[in-house]
TrEMBL record:
Signal peptide stretch: none
Protein name: Uncharacterized protein
SUPFAM superfamilies for this protein: Phosphoenolpyruvate/pyruvate domain
Molecular-function GO terms, alphabetical: phosphoenolpyruvate carboxylase activity
One GO biological process term: tricarboxylic acid cycle
Lineage, uppermost ranks: Eukaryota, Sar, Stramenopiles, Ochrophyta, Chrysophyceae
Origin species: Spumella elongata
């Protein structure tokens, strides 16, 4: 059990640094997508931003429960074309976030390999191919 030990603090700090990189990547990609959406249709951009703000408000620990109702009302007020563009905007954001997560996983793997005593550039686990070579 690693309760309040220097090792636990070090692990937590390292995880926070790693998560910071992922959040930064997602934020950059989200901003770029936002610019593209706004250039294409500023009204759709405004709807997406409003839905995002309401979603954040609803998800907070002490969030406003009626924010979900407000989201539903906002979606119902959109025409079919707007709904299509808004849904594509969210789908594209999720695709970009998944891409950032895949990149992040590779970044973590490379970092782990670089900081280990791994031979042959293999994942540093004894039950892996590297363990079989020794």
């Amino acid at each position: 059990l690693l309760v309040n030990t220097p090792i636990r603090a070090s692990i937590h700090a390292n995880i926070c640094d790693i998560d910071t990189e992922l959040r930064s990547d997602v934020k950059k990609l989200g901003k770029a997508l936002g610019v593209a959406i706004k250039q294409n249709d500023s009204k759709v951009f405004d709807i997406v931003e409003e839905l995002r703000a309401l979603g954040r408000e609803w998800r907070l620990p002490n969030g406003r429960a009626s924010a979900l109702d407000d989201m539903i009302k906002r979606v119902h007020s959109c025409d079919v074309t707007q709904l299509h563009q808004v849904s594509r905007s969210f789908a594209n954001f999720l695709a970009l976030a998944n891409t950032a997560e895949n990149h992040h996983r590779i970044r973590r793997l490379r970092s782990s390999i670089a900081s280990s005593d791994s031979d042959y550039g293999l994942w540093p686990k004894q039950d892996s191919c590297g363990g079989a070579i020794h």
